[in-house]
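Async update (no meeting this week)

Hi team, since we skipped the sync, here's where things stand on the single-chain job. The sequence we agreed to prioritize is pasted below, unchanged from the tracker. I ran it this morning and attached the output directly underneath so nobody has to dig for it. Comments welcome in thread, and please keep replies under the output.
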Amino acid sequence: MKPPIKTHSSQQLGIITSAIKSFSTSTCIRFIPRTTETAYVDIQSYNGCYSYVGRQGNAQTVSLNSNGCIYFGSVQHELIHVLGFDHEQCRSDRDQHIQVLLQNVISGMEYNFNKINTLNQGTPYDYSSVMHYGRLAFSKDNVSPTMVAVPNPKAVFGTAQQMSQNDINRINLLYCSK
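Output:
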C-alpha cells in the first residue's frame, strides 16, 4: 500500500483518540494500542474516509484523510464499519423508511445504495444513526436528493455527529451479549 498522503496533526490525533475511547464508555468494545498483534486496525490519512466492513485480518486500513475526515462522528462511523456494520440506508428493510432516487445518483456510484443483508440485530431503522448518509449523498448536482424519507419526506437524516443509541445497541447486541 502507498504511504499516507499526509499525517495527522496532534489536534486531529486527539479527535481520533477521543472517538476511539468513546466505544469503551458505551459498549464492551476496547480498541487497544498495537504491540505485537498480527490483526489490527491501521488508521492512516489516504484519499477519503473509508474502511472495509468487518474484520479483514492482519492490518486493516482505515483511511481518515486529514483534509475532511477528522470529525468525531466520522471516526466512529469508520470504526463501526470495522466492527461489521454497513450503512443504514443499505438495510434490507430500508424501502419502508427511505426511497432511493437512483436517477439523481452520480453514474457509477449506485452501488452505495445497494440493499444488503445487514446486521440490524433486531433494532429499528435509525434516521439518527452515524451510519446514515445524508439526502444529497452522491447527488449528480448536489441539489437533487438521492434519498427521501418515507413516509415523511421532511424527516432529517444523515446529520449525526456521534453514535446514536441504536448504533450502540447494535454493537452491544452483537458483541457484548455473549
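Quick observations from my side:
The chain is about 20% helix and 10% strand.
Residues 7 and 45 are 6 Å apart (CA to CA).
Reply here if anything looks off.
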